[in-house]
Design goal:
The chain is mainly alpha-helical. The chain folds into two domains: about 60 residues, no CATH class; about 60 residues, HAD superfamily/HAD-like (Rossmann fold, 3-Layer(aba) Sandwich), CATH 3.40.50. The protein has five helices and three strands, in the order H-H-E-H-E-H-E-H. Strand 2, helix 4 and strand 3 form a beta-alpha-beta unit.
Length: about 120
C-alpha cells in the first residue's frame, strides 16, 4: 500500500500528484497531511493508524518505508522506526540526506531497479 505524508492539505496533495500522473497507485484516504499537524513524525504515525483502521491489519512503523527529499523526512522516519530512503531531487544533497541517517540515498527515482533494491534491501 502506498500513501502520502506531506505538509500539504490532502486536496492540494492530490492535485499536485495528479498533474504529474503520479496519483494512480496512491491511497489518499490513509495519508498524513498538514491538516493533521505540523510534526512530520506524527504525520507518519497518523498514516499508519489510518491504514490499520481501513485495512483491518496492523501497519507498523518498523515495516514502513518513508521516501523523502529532505533531512526532516529522514529524521521523521527515524523517530518512528521506519526505513528511510532519501531522494536528492529537492534542495537537499546526497550527503545531507546521508548525514540525516538515511538507510539509502538515490539521486532520483528514474532507476526503478535502484529504487527496488533500496526498498527491499533491509
Amino acid at each position: 500500500m502506498q500513501t502520502l505524508v506531506t505538509g500539504n492539505l490532502a486536496t492540494i496533495a492530490r492535485v499536485k500528484l495528479k498533474v504529474f500522473g503520479l496519483d494512480e497507485h496512491i491511497d489518499f484516504e490513509v495519508g498524513g497531511y498538514g491538516s493533521d499537524g505540523d510534526i512530520r513524525s506524527q504525520l507518519v504515525l497518523c498514516a499508519l493508524a489510518r491504514a490499520t483502521k481501513k485495512y483491518g491489519i496492523p501497519f507498523l512503523a518498523n515495516g514502513a518505508i518513508v521516501i523523502g527529499d529532505t533531512p526532516l523526512d529522514i529524521l521523521a522516519a527515524r523517530e518512528v522506526g521506519a526505513r528511510a530512503i532519501g531522494v536528492a531531487t529537492g534542495k537537499s544533497s546526497i550527503s545531507e540526506l546521508n548525514e540525516a541517517g538515511a538507510d539509502a540515498v538515490l539521486e532520483d527515482l528514474t532507476d526503478i531497479e535502484k529504487l527496488r533494491a533500496s526498498v527491499y534491501n533491509r
